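From the pipeline queue, job 12 of 40. The input is one protein chain; the requested action is below.

Action: predict structure.
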Amino acid sequence: MTLTVFILAGGESLRMGQDKGMMFGGVSRLKKMLGACGVSRIIILCGAEERSALFQGDVWPDPPGVQGIHHLISWACRRVDSSCLLLPCDAFLMTEEAFQALVERTVIGGVPLDRNGRRQPLFARIPQGYDFAEDAASVGHLLEDLPSVQMEGFASAFTNFNSAEDLRDHQQKLLSLHGEHVLQQSM
């Protein structure tokens, strides 16, 4: 598969109160899942240089001068010679099946819709050579020209988790995917 997946693991997780890149098997779980799906190029965007040691593999700290995740995404995609797919480290409900469905439905690029019909640009597939808006002020604005993609049957996999309340709201689904032991450690 000619695709580069960027795992977004550079946030401070302030609202969650713990590093989301380490929860529910963390970045390691996502890398294993991506490998099982045939992805050969996985790059972890880790944030500050000191976070590099938290992850194994191809890890890129933020370059000097990057001001926001929208600039980071543009910078990173321009440095690879393939289409790119974004995967936030808090993709706690992502499964191999949901990832494969995303790849199949976004061949020309796209932004998946979550279970509430909202665009989730941090899960976007960005075609090689995409013309990024230089004046973008957000990830949504940066990727606004990509089509929205319905993810029937898999929409819950594109849920973002920003707080412990979000974890409680999805406790049953998290339990079914990760088990009681892992759920207790992460809440």
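Job complete. The first strand starts at residue 3 and ends at 8.
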